Amino acid sequence: MTMNRRKFLKATSTGLLLGGTSLALGARVLEVPSAAADERDAYGFWRKGRWRNWSHNVEMRPKEILRPTRIEQLQEAVLKSPKIRAVGSGHSISTIAYTEDTLVNTDGLSGIVSLDRERGLVTVRGGMKLRDFNEAITRLGFCIPSTGDTTYQSLAGLLSTGTHGTGMRWGSCSDEESLVGMEIVDPRGELVNLNADRPGDLELLRAARVSLGSFGMVNTVTLKVAPVHNLEHVGHKSNVNEAFDPAHLRDNDHYEFAYFPFTDSVYQFFRNRTEKPIDVTKFGTWFHEVFLENDLAKILLGVTSLIPSLNPAVMKAFVNSFPEAREVDRADRVMTIRRKTPTHLMEVALPIENGPQALEIYRGLVEKYAHGKNVDRFFPNLPLQIRFVRADRGTLISCAEGRDTCWFGLGSYIKHRGWEPMFREMEKELIALGGRPHWGKMYFTNPLALHERFGEWESIRRKFDPQGKFASRYLERIRTLASSEDGSCF
Q1: How many domains does the chain have?
Q2: Beta strands, E only, 252-298
Q3: What is the pTM of this model?
């Protein structure tokens, strides 16, 4: 978890603040320089004709790889391809992007198309990376009010899997108050424009907000944005018994915490909107965000992958190394961190009232797998991440649909062995508590019965794409397997 953020870009709202209440760029999208990509090594299109995701657990060799830069090219690709899938940044740990047919790389489909200042609506091409979007929309005077903790994803991928931030004022990024419009290419290669203001569009829009990549190719999305603002971040270590205090959710715009296995400690993150000026230091940002949280952590994880029994001592030392923190920075920088260490990640959406019980179960499993008998020995090596969102509205298969949600996220560095038995057992416990696995993270159990409206989603999908042009092996496996029979995750 992050402690400090990068220095605020001083020229945040000049140059592109064009007169009037609406900025319409039409076909001339607002191009922005791509931000430095910390995660490009050894994933993405890492070998000729081959693609691998960020966590290195999914690899594919498509029949063809297309890289459109114009909508006409995307339409032609859809029209001519019998089977087609899209891929953005490869941040899904699940097999959702896998195909052996036509694969569309969406990197060239980037840029802001229009901005309605009065209504706070921005239309942007789906292939744009969140990190680039954050920089561009800041220069226009706006921001996304709540977002996930990494910025490498493409916007279409982020929305299609129901990615989320933390804070009870917001749902996921796919909630109806966040995602208000889409333009998609249908199986015939035609553009379909969906707008939440048109009642006739709502059925398809509710299904397509969390589409799993199965409702056409996303050309643009229209997002509700907020005026750019700063957040004051306060972080400190606390006791695990204090972590779920309801006052933290009531009294803070954004609250989350990290639990450190083998300890009684959590590190809490309180983030609130403020009029205070930016107050971060370049050295502090580098020390915490680059050195402490990535470079040093990667070294320690490499050592403990060779000697796993060191993990309890390392966890205790690591949580004690985080000092009290107080800083003010631009909202998107406070909410996000760099990730340079690929991990296996599982995240499950629980009814918010079941969060404390889930944490106690997890602590018991930590001891069982580290010190118990007759188990495959495993020492958890990453902190557990707990975040909170209000119930999603206007979707069919969002994991947060219809209920306030506690997101329960556990991970393991990819070089550590033996994580899977514990992950499988923890998943069963979380599902018994009403959990729904994140569509973009790894899971082992068929989740369809956990989504009351999946049948409705599937019916709309078949009507939209009767020939299955956008169908995926990912969905086929989910429908046909009660659980993963070959030992791998979905």
Answers
A1: 2
A2: 254-259, 265-274
A3: 0.88
